[in-house]
Recover the amino acids of this structure.
């Protein structure tokens, strides 16, 4: 029998990993000539790091709806929680 991903910590974990994966895909498609750390520094110097992180969090919306539609409500709560935490970090970065 297959185990269902339905615990809240699963949602937190996937909700935190998906933006990191998205950021890596952005790096590979935009600046694969540089090191990843240099890419992050470049975004930070230009003041675009918070914008890039905001875009990287968007796939969490799709993950949230997949968990809702498949009746995995605890995992959906975890995704929502991690998205809120990431949003607070982004707002802090943007205005500080």
């Amino acid at each position: 029998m297959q185990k269902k991903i339905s615990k809240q910590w699963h949602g937190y974990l996937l909700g935190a990993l998906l933006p990191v994966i998205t950021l890596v895909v952005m790096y590979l498609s935009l600046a694969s000539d540089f090191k990843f750390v240099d890419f992050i520094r470049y975004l930070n110097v230009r003041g675009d790091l918070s914008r890039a992180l905001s875009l990287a969090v968007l796939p969490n919306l799709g993950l949230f709806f997949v968990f809702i539609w498949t009746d995995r409500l605890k995992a959906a709560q975890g995704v929502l929680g991690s998205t809120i935490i990431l949003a607070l970090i982004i707002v802090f970065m943007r205005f500080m």
About this structure: The chain has a mean pLDDT of 92.
